[in-house]
Amino acid sequence: MESDSILYQIKGEKLSAVIFVLDYVQLDFDGKKLSCYIFPDVHINSKLLHFPETGYRDSLCRLLGNNVTSISIIKAVGITINFDSDYIHCPLNRSQIGEVFFFTDESNNWESYTDDSAAF
Questions:
Q1: Distance CA 10, CA 33 (A)
Q2: Do residues 73 and 86 make contact, with C-beta atoms less than 8 angstroms apart?
Q3: CA-CA distances (angstroms) from residue 19 to 73, 85, 117, 119?
Q4: Tell me: the pLDDT tens digits for 70-90?
Q5: Using the 8-state DSSP alphabet, how is residue 47 labeled?
Q6: Which residues pair with 27 in a beta bridge?
């Protein structure tokens, strides 16, 4: 994807909130929010968890307070948010729901990520 994506603003920010809503999750990085309409995968302590596996929610919350070390956005694959040796992977290729992720920063700039990976 484009290197000018505003999602790269979260590099160096800490994961400050994990908000579970009825059918999606929102990740807050010091005021910058990524709404995930498909639950992301969580890799923590060398274990990969998928929603709704036992321990998924706890593992995602264990990343709270950790700083984002890097971000990878790969067309038709997804977004990976790295925290040292752990990461969150937001897949773009699992469904046909249209908008999969929606990102907003503190200035209300936004980007939409779709399952066809064409929109930004």
A1: 9
A2: no
A3: 22, 23, 24, 25
A4: 999 988 788 999 999 999 999
A5: E
A6: 18, 34
List the strands of the sheet with 78-83, edge to edge.
47-49, 41-44, 86-91, 78-83, 70-74
Largest CA distance in the chain: 37
Element (H, E) at 72: strand 70-74
58, containing H or E segment: helix 56-62
Comparing C-alpha atoms, which of 3, 81, 85 is closest to residue 47? 85
Kindly report, residue by residue over 3-33, the tens digit of the pLDDT.
679 999 999 999 999 999 999 999 999 999 9
Angle at Cα 69 formed by Cα 11 and Cα 19, nearest 5°?
Answer: 65
Distance, in Å, from the CA atom of 3 to the CA atom of 54, rounded to the nearest integer, reads 35
